[in-house]
Amino acid sequence: MHDSHKIARLKGVRDGIRLTLDPHQSLSILLPEVTELFQQMQHLAADATVWVETDGGALDTKTLEQLETTLEKEFAIGSLRPLPEKAGDERSPARGAGGRLANLGRTFNPHRNDGLFLAGRVRSGQNIKARKHLVIMGDVNPGAEIEAGGDILILGTLGGKASAGIPDNTRAIILALDLRPTQLQIGGIVAAGQPGTKGHGIEYARVENGAIIVSDYKKDNPFKQIQWPEQR
Q: What's the CA gap between 83 and 71, in Å, rounded?
């Protein structure tokens, strides 16, 4: 039996995550321990810089490369780097309410963003798709269709068909300055017409209890309870 706390440890620091490893362990032992730690963090590791230090000794290049490859693939970290000497005193841990690693994810790498940012009117007959989030600075006319794997934000009037969270992300939202869709879809849930929208002010659609509902964004901001920015 081995003590996993001595093999691998994580700590949030101002500019990323500090990963402390036992350099005397083999990759076959280190990798499962590190993977388990990052699984507990869920989305908080996305795009973060991971600083690696050891409890005496050094890790070989092959081990570091394999760790970086795995963490990039499974948890979308930004990079994995050796901790510079004498940098430890400058990287104090910061925690938020409930002991969360509050400072993780403050830095985001634009090259990892699959979102689509457009300006201009989307006209009838046009079809726009984004792998992740979709932001349009302009109107979406009736007869136009837009689709995204994540959220949809329209800085104008949404008058066409909008599908967010495709294929199965029911946490996605559809927000518009003027929400007048012909059809909304979030994940696999569809609502025809203007489900509950009053057509006044900024509104957003979301899934609640298996149905799409529309709320006033100013009165019911879905993000106000989030303590620190998190990647969607």
A: 17
- Supply the CATH number for residue 184's domain: 2.160.20.70
Mapping DSSP to helix (H, G, I), strand (E, B) and coil, where does residue 6 land?
Answer: helix
| Domain-terminating residue out of 74, 99, 124 | 99
pLDDT higher than threshold 90 for residue 211 = yes
**Structure tokens given for 49:** 């810089």
Does residue 232 lie within any of the structural domains? no
Phi, psi dihedrals of residue 97, rounded to the nearest 5°: -60, 140
Parallel, antiparallel or unpaired: strands 161-164 and 145-148: parallel
**CA 42 – CA 143 distance, rounded (Å):** 39
Please check whether residue 226 lies inside any domain of the structure: no
Please tell me the predicted confidence (pLDDT) of residue 5. Answer: 56
The mean-pLDDT minimum among 13-17, 74-78, 112-116, 212-216 falls in 112-116
> Which residues lie below 8 Å from residue 150, measured CB to CB, with a gap of 6+?
115, 130, 132, 133, 134, 164, 165, 169, 172, 232
Q: How sure is the predictor about 75, in pLDDT bands with cuts at 50, 70 and 90?
A: confident
Q: Which one, of 165, 194, 166, lies nearest residue 181 by Cα? A: 194
- Three-state secondary structure call for residue 21: strand
Structural domain including 64 reads 4-99
Q: Are 119 and 211 part of one and the same domain?
A: yes
Q: Is the domain of 95 the same as that of 121?
A: no
Domain edge (last residue) among 53, 69, 99: 99
